[in-house]
Design brief:
The chain is mainly α. It has 8 helices and no strands. It has a single domain, classed as Farnesyl Diphosphate Synthase. α1 runs antiparallel to α2 and α2 (20-40) runs antiparallel to α3.
């Protein structure tokens, strides 16, 4: 059995790191999120719960763990509130990133616009659009190449 990088570090650091719980939580987040996100992100799926689960594991869990770990390290009595804050911040960050992907140009983003759509990834904007379409347009959405709104007559 291959031991992951995070498991190696964990076994080496347990003997001297007093905040072992933090390390174990960060290790489990990294280990569980990577594999599942890859599987969830491969194809478009209009299920909002799957999308929220995916972005939690892709982004929010890391921010959640970071804010929680910081609170634990300073021995804040309400560390779990920081955890909730980090989770919500991570979810909001990813949703905003998904919106910007379809509303901004590549130059504005500093990365390719519409990349999520081109790769067939599920994002909240596409789920919401998908819900409003008839069958014919749903099929078109799943098969067409779209351009950012900023490059259409509908730009702000």
């Amino acid at each position: 059995m291959t031991v992951s990088y995070f498991e190696q570090i964990q076994s080496n650091m347990n003997y001297w790191w007093p905040e072992r719980e933090i390390y174990e939580r960060l290790g489990s987040i990294m280990k569980s999120s990577t594999e599942e996100v890859v599987n969830l992100a491969k194809d478009f799926n209009p299920d909002k719960n799957l999308y929220l689960n995916m972005i939690y594991k892709k982004t929010a869990s890391l921010i959640e763990a970071s804010t929680w770990a910081a609170a634990i390290l300073i021995k804040h009595p309400e560390a779990d509130k920081f955890k909730v804050y980090g989770k919500n911040l991570g979810l909001a960050f990813q949703i905003i990133d998904d919106i910007l992907d379809i509303t901004q140009t590549s130059e504005q983003l500093g990365k390719p616009a519409m990349n999520d759509f081109k790769e067939g990834k599920t994002t909240l904007p596409y789920i919401l659009l998908y819900e409003k379409l008839n069958i014919k347009d749903k099929m078109l959405l799943q098969s067409s190449k779209l351009v950012p709104l900023s490059q259409t007559k509908y730009k702000n």
